[in-house]
């Protein structure tokens, strides 16, 4: 069973306070007998009252005695004159490095003490990127780089330590120009930082913000984003991708091999592909070509007719991984094709050249600097609650978390304009969120802007909770995308990791807004036909009309859904229901399932409703020893021991039946009913692949390829489609340069949301008050 599923079973209610970082400087003055003498503070030129009120309006959260009686433009501390906008070091706590701030205000309080206010700069380690990440072998942070935060407060003037020279550096400055630009300052900054959505972003540029209204129309009027290349190690996942995105180059290989391949491909392109088509004598291999000579070949030599494909790896399962070409041999048919290492092809440079030129023309592989977006969900199985050997101290040492590194290495190599990474929320929980911080750290060290958010699928119109972490990255020359705000209410479950509590994508607590009512299982699947446990056919008719708006929409064809993956002409059969098959239960389980009542029960119907189980003290399930154990036809017990002992008898999940008015916590990759609630409300079977796909928001036309279990895996692994769609909308806006500064989130336009759901007025989505908080892993 997967950790995410457990983590989302709402338990415990420990509320979480948003730990707001408030920097309180320490006074520097040492009492009478200390070494340090009392600072000599002389306030300079006063600011006239009306000007002061305009520039520094009183805020309500100021403490009474810190209210200003008079403002000043300068202050003299120990013969050093400080001015507004000066950057200073500020005394911090005993073992802390000095804080860094930009002075925005000098004033004398009602209590006659002298204060300054400043906007704080954060060092890298003051952000969510922890100190540990400063000492990584695969990336470094410049110790001179700081980030301007939006946090500000007042402290006593005596806490000012000294001036510090901080310059602003254009984030688009070339790496070559940078050392010179920063040679003469103590520190520099090129981005802002905010705890809200862990955002690292260019500073507001002040001009060029396009009218949002105009661009909304533009984005909705169909800017296309097409998947050019896709990589997955799972061949069935690749087959599904290829089926639904026929124009993509889908590569069934390890991401790490893909990285090695694109690096070598770039070298090949540089060697063989001429710019502007002018022949360069150095690389022109046609002049000394002996490949086509009509001389007989030495015995035992085969001639290469054509190169068909390229990879990095070891498709022949020999020992050496290397760059290889798939060779069609002259005089032989496809059954003799073989993968040959490049070294073995030195005798036929022309064939290699032809292949590289054609491949380059056809864009078979991405080249650095020429990619718009990289998106992916690198698996981090090393943090699963079930993995007893989790490496808490160094999660990156765990081979099972390696894909996160590979993903960032690919980003580092290709330098796309945009990055979107998805992952389970556990990357923000496990080992104090180390992996999440690592991902952010890599992006920031590569000079990307970055923003992290946790999005709940159900909040975008699905009867499923499913909270996931998403990380945006954007080159400094681009606008950093925002997180799209929820459109729907949802039944809340699960926990929010403390360190990242300000990253939950939700309305601000104070705002009143309208959300559509939460969707329920009935909305999503009540139109689908009745099928049995054994359903060999994977295509059938619908038999019934849609009953809800969700069903009407999910049945739309590609064209009406505005999905142009087929470039407009979709040959697939319409009005057919695909992948409508449940995982076939064995005879024993099927018999058990037939005994689970089909009813709405207070706790839900499950194994506890089977004969021979009773609930003891604390609702712990136990066998009723007063009656003989009920047996199945096979002789096995009706109630298996594992169901009783699951989570020490505390669970109600084994053989659980869903009900029409429920939502599911998370669609996972398996369909066995032994430890999750996955039985259909009124039929004796688990939910079909298609039903799960609908809960994930896949349009019905999206076919899945592979054995049934593999289809469940693909569906369970996916980013819920409505979430991806909303993120795509944000990306479209950012791509076109729409930026309204100071907002990490955006409201989706009404036209974007298709729903006949009634709206409910809420004053907030309810974070953190009604977000259920529980301990990290239950022993399930
Ligand atoms: N984002 C995808 C789902 C990603 S799930 C979607 O929305 O559909 C993670 C995927 O990583 C799985 O399909 C798994 O097969 C693949 N994977 C695991 N290890 C891999 C590796 N070493 N190289 C490439 N893909 C890998």
TrEMBL record:
Compositional bias per record (Basic and acidic residues), positions renumbered to this chain: 8-19
SMART domains: BAH (SM00439), CHROMO (SM00298)
BAH domain segment(s): 80-204
Region (Disordered): 1-64, 277-297
Compositional bias per record (Acidic residues), positions renumbered to this chain: 279-294
Catalytic activity: a 2'-deoxycytidine in DNA + S-adenosyl-L-methionine = a 5-methyl-2'-deoxycytidine in DNA + S-adenosyl-L-homocysteine + H(+)
Positions of the catalytic residues: 380
Keywords annotated in UniProt: DNA-binding, Methyltransferase, Nucleus, S-adenosyl-L-methionine, Transferase
Domain Chromo: residue ranges: 302-358
Name the UniProt record assigns to this protein: Cytosine-specific methyltransferase
């Amino acid at each position: 069973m997967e950790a995410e599923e457990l983590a989302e079973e709402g338990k415990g209610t420990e509320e979480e306070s948003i730990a707001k970082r408030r920097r309180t400087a320490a006074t520097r003055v040492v009492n009478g007998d200390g070494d340090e003498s009392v600072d000599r503070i002389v306030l300079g030129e006063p600011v006239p009252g009306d000007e002061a009120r305009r520039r520094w309006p009183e805020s309500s959260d100021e403490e009474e005695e810190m209210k200003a009686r008079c403002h000043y433009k300068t202050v003299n501390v120990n013969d050093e004159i400080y001015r507004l906008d000066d950057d200073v070091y500020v005394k911090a706590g005993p073992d802390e490095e000095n804080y860094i701030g930009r002075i925005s205000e000098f004033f004398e309080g009602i209590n006659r003490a002298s204060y300054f206010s400043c906007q704080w700069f954060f060092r890298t380690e003051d952000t969510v990127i922890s100190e540990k990440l400063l000492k990584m072998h695969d990336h470094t942070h410049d110790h001179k780089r700081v980030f301007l935060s939006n946090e500000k407060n007042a402290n006593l003037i005596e806490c000012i330590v000294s001036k510090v020279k901080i310059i602003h550096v254009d984030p688009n400055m070339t790496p070559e120009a940078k050392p010179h630009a920063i040679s003469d300052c103590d520190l520099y900054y090129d981005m802002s930082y905010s705890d809200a959505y862990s955002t690292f972003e260019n500073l507001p540029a002040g001009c060029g913000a396009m009218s949002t209204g105009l661009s909304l129309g533009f984005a909705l009027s169909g800017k296309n984003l097409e998947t050019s290349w896709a990589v997955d190690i799972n061949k069935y996942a690749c087959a599904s991708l290829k089926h639904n995105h026929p124009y993509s180059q889908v590569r069934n290989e390890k991401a790490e091999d893909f990285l090695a391949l694109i690096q070598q491909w770039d070298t090949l392109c540089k060697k063989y592909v001429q710019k502007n088509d002018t022949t360069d004598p150095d690389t022109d291999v046609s002049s000394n070509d002996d490949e086509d000579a009509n001389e007989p070949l030495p015995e035992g030599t085969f001639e290469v007719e054509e190169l068909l494909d390229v990879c990095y790896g070891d498709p022949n399962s020999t020992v050496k991984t290397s760059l290889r070409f798939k060779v069609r041999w002259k005089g032989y048919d496809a059954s003799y094709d073989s993968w040959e290492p490049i070294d073995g092809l030195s005798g036929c440079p022309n064939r290699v050249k032809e292949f590289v030129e054609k491949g380059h023309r056809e864009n078979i592989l991405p080249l650095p600097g020429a990619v718009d977006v990289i998106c992916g969900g690198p698996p981090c199985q090393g943090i699963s609650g079930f993995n007893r050997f989790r490496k808490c101290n160094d999660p990156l040492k765990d081979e099972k978390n390696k894909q996160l590194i590979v993903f960032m290495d690919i980003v580092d190599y290709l330098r796309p304009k945009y990055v979107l990474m998805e992952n389970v929320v556990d990357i923000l929980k496990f080992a104090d969120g180390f992996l999440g911080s690592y991902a952010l750290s890599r992006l920031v060290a590569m000079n990307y802007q970055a923003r992290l958010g946790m999005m709940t699928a159900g909040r975008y119109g699905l009867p499923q909770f499913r909270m996931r972490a998403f990380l945006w990255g954007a080159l400094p020359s681009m606008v950093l995308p925002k997180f799209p705000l929820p459109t729907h209410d949802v039944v809340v479950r699960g926990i929010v990791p403390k360190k990242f509590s300000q990253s939950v994508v939700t309305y601000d607590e104070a705002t009143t807004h309208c959300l559509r009512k939460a969707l329920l299982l009935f909305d999503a699947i009540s139109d689908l036909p009745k099928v049995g446990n054994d359903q060999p056919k994977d295509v059938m008719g619908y038999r019934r009309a849609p009953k809800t708006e969700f069903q009407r929409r999910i049945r739309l064809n590609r064209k009406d859904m505005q999905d142009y993956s087929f470039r407009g002409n979709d040959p697939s059969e319409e009005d057919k229901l695909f992948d409508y098959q449940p995982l076939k239960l064995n005879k024993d389980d099927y018999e058990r399932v037939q005994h689970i009542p089909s009813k709405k029960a207070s706790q839900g119907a499950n194994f506890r409703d089977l004969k021979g189980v009773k609930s003891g003290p604390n609702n712990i399930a136990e066998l009723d020893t007063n009656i003989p154990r009920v047996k199945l036809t096979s002789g096995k017990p009706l109630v298996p021991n594992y169901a009783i002992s699951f989570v020490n008898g505390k669970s109600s999940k084994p053989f659980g039946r869903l009900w029409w008015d429920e939502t599911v916590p998370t669609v996972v990759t398996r369909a066995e009913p032994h430890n999750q609630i996955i039985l259909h409300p009124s039929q004796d079977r688990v939910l079909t692949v298609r039903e799960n796909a609908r809960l994930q928001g896949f349009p019905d036309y999206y076919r899945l390829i592979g054995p049934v279990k593999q289809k469940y895996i693909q569906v369970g692994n996916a980013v819920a489609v409505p979430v991806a769609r909303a993120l795509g909308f944000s990306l479209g806006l950012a791509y076109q340069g729409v930026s309204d500064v100071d907002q990490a989130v955006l409201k989706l336009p009404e036209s974007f949301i298709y729903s006949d759901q009634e709206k409910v007025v809420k004053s907030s989505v309810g974070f953190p008050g009604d977000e259920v908080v529980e301990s990290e892993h239950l022993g399930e």
